Amino acid sequence: MIDFKSLMQPHRIVMMLIFTGIVIWCAVSLQWDWIPKYGPLALQGIWTTIWLLVVTVVLGFLLAVPLGLAQAVGPWYLAAPAKAFCTIIRGTPLLLQLWLLYYGLGSLFPQFPWIRSSELWPYLRQAWPYAVLALTLSYAGYEGEVMRGAFKGVAKGQLEAAKSFGMPRLTMFRRIWLPQAIRNVLPTLGGETILQLKATPLVATITVVDIYAVSSRVRSDTFIIYEPLLLLAVFYILVAGVIALGFHWLEVKVLGTGRRNGSFG
Amino acid sequence: MAQSAELLSLSPPGWGGNLLRGLSHSLQIAFGAYALGLVIGLFGAYGKLYGGKVTRDLLAIYTTVIRAVPELVLILILYYVGSDIINKISAAMGGGRVEVSGVGAGIWVLGIVQGAYATEVLRGAIQAVPPGQIEAAKSFGMPAFMTMRRVTIPAMMSFAVPGLANLWLIATKDTALLAVVGFNELTLETRQAASSTRAYFTFFLAAGFLYLMVTLFSGGIFARIEKWARRGQPSLKGGSR
Questions:
Q1: Residue contact A104–B69, C-beta within 8 A
Q2: In A, what residues contact B, Cβ < 8 A?
Q3: Nearest CA to B122 among B159, B147, B95, B150?
């Protein structure tokens, strides 16, 4: 991806030296003594962030497939609600959705005795189920729209060929329609997954302790502002890079060629 | 239902006035940030296309970093950096600590974020303009700025409008993030109203409705702008849209 030769131009070498200088200056003159104390908490936070990202992307995508299908070929009584869902999710801020679910449902549930006495209550009192729900619905809303285009984009001849061979509808969907649709939107999905990564810090506002919440705690405990934020930014850049590389690898593997039309971020 | 209507009424026992004030703050920030983002984006796009090697690399770093780091983190970093710089300047000029206004800070922070996205949108749009048109302007001896104003920008509009419409929607929704740093925009006003009346669903649904109206209304406006920008061009897909 990154060509070694292209890095070895004079102006880039100078820029890299300056960058190294800045990093060394940061390492020497900024305050890093809080790291050992907050290290374990930070690791937990990183784990929470990654876990939230993976779970909500997988669940959201599973939800997006029927949403896209309903909009692409479904009858109106399925297409209209799916479209309304996608419009509402895409038209309102995620923070508002998150707070609506957390504070709204959180204040509604305790009013019902049967919920309070149910097995699920210990979980419903915590914040993370609401975080997972909100992030999943959000990813599903955005991806539902993407998948609508993807399903429509599969060439009709392919489906007709499958039909003419007498392939059952479910098999046709599983073997031909879905794989091709996913193949077409793989670059978009990579960008959307990075967007989802960037949405995860919002869960800190409903008391889920992800890596962003850890950095906020460092800031409010020690009054050190820039150091935790810089590390946080570096962390997100690294994870975004890993996601981009992962999807690139997947594209090369699935498509056979490294099409570089995936937008980064 | 009657209770909800009472809570949402505009005069003081209801909180509708607060919500509308929050909405107007949100829209002010969104407008300002969008405008700032467009200016940065235009310079950024020109720098990326026609700038020197160093400019191009620096802009690549700017757009990559901004698009890889969560807006929430950027907002905090830019907010602290911005207020530090202003306070340093004010101290150097012999003044005291300056309180940064919420709207101004929001515009500065979101504008820089928007700028990175706008750079990419506009760069793509400028690249889509047939190079012959710009070369023709050059060959007639048109100055660079006039070429931009008379040829490049009008010709790229039709390619840029869909991306710019998306950016505007992102700008309106990103204003909600400023709630986290305590600006009184719509989402924070809503939460304050909701937590003091305990009517969470009423207020969050009302705010969601307001955001949705902004989205749908802007969608209509941008559809008209796109139609205007495409005037005189053959339709792309046989009018399927």
A1: no
A2: 9, 11-12, 15, 87-88, 90-97, 99-100, 103-104, 106-108, 194, 197-202, 205, 212, 225-226, 229-230, 232-233, 236-237, 240-241, 263-265
A3: B159
Report pLDDT digits (tens) over B62-83.
998 998 999 889 888 888 888 8
- pLDDT tens track for A105-122: 888 877 777 777 777 777
Q: How far apart are CA A127 and CA B145, in angstroms?
A: 54
Asked if the Cβ–Cβ distance from B64 to A90 is below 8 Å, we say no
* Contacts (Cβ under 8 Å, ≥6 apart) of B146: B137
Q: Which domains does chain B have, with CATH numbers?
A: 2-229 (1.10.3720.10)
Which amino acid, residue B164? L
Amino acid identity at A22: I
Question: Is the model's pTM score more than 0.80?
Answer: yes
Instruction: Give the pair of three-digit tokens for residue A162.
Output: 């499958």
How many residue pairs bridge chain A and chain B with CB atoms within 8 Å of each other?
118
Q: Which of the residues in chain A have pLDDT under 50?
A: 258-265
**Directed axis angle between helix B16-50 and helix B153-174, to 10°?**
140
Gap between the Cα atoms of A102 and A124, Å rounded = 10
What domains, with CATH codes, occur in chain A? 30-255 (1.10.3720.10)
Q: In angstroms, rounded to a whole number, what is the distance separating the alpha carbons of residues B120 and B163? A: 9
Structure token digits, residue B114: 């928007």
Compute φ and ψ for B92, nearest 5 degrees: -65, -30
Using alpha carbons, list the distances in angstroms from residue A222 to A46, A217, A228, B83. Answer: 20, 8, 10, 19
Rounded Cα distance, A72 and A182, in Å: 14
Determine the Cα–Cα distance for residues B27 and B174; give it in Å rounded to an integer. Answer: 11
- Identify all chain A residues contacting B80, using CB atoms and an 8 Å cutoff: 225-226, 229
Nearest to B186 by CA among B36, B23, B66: B23
Which residue has 């930014």 as its token pair?
A233
Maximum pairwise Cα distance, chain B: 70
Q: Rounded CA gap, B112 and A246, in Å?
A: 28
